[in-house]
UniProtKB/TrEMBL annotation:
This is ABC transporter, ATP-binding protein. GO terms for molecular function: ATP binding; ATP hydrolysis activity. It comes from Saccharolobus shibatae. Residues 4-228 form the ABC transporter domain. Keywords: ATP-binding, Nucleotide-binding, Transport.
Length: 237
């Protein structure tokens, strides 16, 4: 079954076409990287899937439902690129509030789990406005995960995080064996750590999609995957 499907999607911002006839499908349980340079349409794609935007034409489906449906919204966890938790609330208050809105059972137990998991326990009584960018990012990740979503949409999830924290987050995602994950990034090495399939966007179009390992078929022996991707993206400019 497809958990995410885009059919001939077009999205414009005024005279700018952000997505131009984009189609792809992601089966439930797959881990897919949405790869491309800045401005390729990655964030727009995620916002369409989560229901924050509507396509100008085409169709976006989440398990066969419109993204704005209550059923679809319940099963999605979303981390935007510039996530903004409630700045005047504390870390714990943010987590407890969102967990309650999401209908999480045993809210305090769930909140405590993520405070420990993401090393936020020392900051639980701090207002978000006082946190570093890295700790805000960790809180935003916890907010996306607090309700144990079936589908996880991640826009540059490792931004602002130091290397040890990145490794901890990658291990966390890789432990979520039943979740469908779509991660947007412009860094090939991150794509390779978090996904085994890739959809490459450039100029609002799908350049290539398939297994990451198959990308090497398009390059010379020992050529870095990053340069192969760059050449594919260049082909539609």
């Amino acid at each position: 079954m497809n958990c995410i499907e885009l059919r001939n999607v077009v999205k414009r911002y005024g005279n700018v076409t952000a997505l131009n006839n984009v189609s792809f499908a992601i089966e439930c349980g797959e881990r897919v990287a949405l790869l491309g340079p800045n401005g390729a349409g990655k964030s727009t794609t995620l916002k369409l899937i989560v229901g924050l935007l509507k396509p100008d034409s085409g169709e976006v489906l989440v398990k066969g439902l419109e993204p704005i449906s209550i059923q679809a919204r319940r099963i999605i966890g979303y981390l935007p690129e510039d996530a903004s938790p409630y700045l005047m609330l504390t870390v714990r208050e943010n987590l407890e509030y969102i967990a309650s809105l999401r209908g999480v059972d045993n809210v305090k137990e769930r909140v405590n789990k993520f405070l420990e998991l993401l090393a936020l326990k020392p900051y639980e009584r701090n207002r978000v406005m006082s946190l570093s960018r890295g700790n805000r990012q960790k809180l935003s990740l916890a907010l996306a995960l607090i309700h144990d979503p079936e589908i996880l949409l991640l826009d540059e999830p490792l931004n602002y995080l130091d290397i040890p924290t990145q490794e901890r987050i990658i291990s966390l995602f890789n432990s979520m064996t039943n979740a469908t994950i779509l991660v947007s990034t412009h860094i090939m090495s991150i794509a390779g750590r978090l996904a085994n399939k890739v959809i490459i966007l450039s100029g609002g179009q799908v350049v290539w999609q398939g297994n990451i390992s198959d990308l090497r078929k398009f390059g010379e022996e020992n050529e870095p995957v990053e340069s192969i991707v760059a050449r594919l993206m260049e082909s539609v400019r």
